[in-house]
Amino acid sequence: MISIIMPTYNCAPFISTAIKSILLQSFKKYELIIINDGSTDDTKSVIKNFNDSRIKYFEKENSGLGESIDFGIQKSDYDLIARMDADDIAHPERLRIQYNFISVNRDVDVLSNWYAVFKESKIRYIVKRSVDNVDIIKNLSLFSDICHPSLLSKKKSFQELGGFKIDLKYDPFGDYVVWLRNKSRIRFYNIPEVLHYYRERSDSLSNEALTNRRNLIYEIQKPYYENSLTGEFQLTETEELAARGWREYLYGDVNKSFYYWSKLNIRLIQYPSIIAATAARLLPKKVFQKLYGKRIPDRVKYLMNYFSSFERSVIKEFRKTLNEIECFH
Q1: How far apart are CA 140 and CA 98, in angstroms?
Q2: Which domain holds residue 38?
Q3: What pTM was estimated for this model as a whole?
Q4: Residue 169, CB-side half-sphere exposure with 13 Å CA sphere
């Protein structure tokens, strides 16, 4: 029914947990295709400890995430393709909920969901992505609004997209490149449930690496920003000004962001996040730089809603999932 593609590169400390979270799925009709992308650690030996006929293991020379995904799709037997990262955790009901949804909503090409970010055994914050196709495409003007390691799609759709292999320098953002190229041909949807737990790694990127990544995203977006964003992403005139400002603020020249945002005039009231971002520029430069990539708004929302029924249920489900994984043999 579902072919799960799990590329891995030097994830020996985490891949056992990821595999167990798949083997514990309530939906049982799947194959788990693991592609060892030239790991130099003990990844292979960890995988070989599992004895389950649904696991298919392959090795190849290191060539990046995009090519590994395409390799896995070529080896797949089923018409539905799911993604899974080797250092994350899937909610036990993820596949069942996704399969039931896409079986009924056949017009959806790429399906994903909300997710929670965790470190060790604690939820750090929750990312509630846009739900409907129109909003997801609008947000593509700034970032991928799809949880790539938790997506489900028809194999036919993947093949029509031309695969995930791209210029290697863009590999960390390969999914974003693919969505941008094909946004007019794809119908997206995000299930408004936390079905994936994304691991926050301690081996975080240096400031130099983060700067390089910002530059890459800016470069990826360039062809689309040379055109009207109304045509490219279905944005209104006001939304386009906001987006062009955010692009500079997040990935380009921060000072240029105020050029676009100043054109909003009184309409700026509609965007309290822009007002907050402008105020953040008053912080010392070192402090401001450290805030980048920390998803401060999501963290603040999570803390403010920590005792709400939704947040408490996510925490409860996460702890339950961890317990099931620990007890798995």
Answers
A1: 22
A2: 2-202+316-327
A3: 0.93
A4: 9
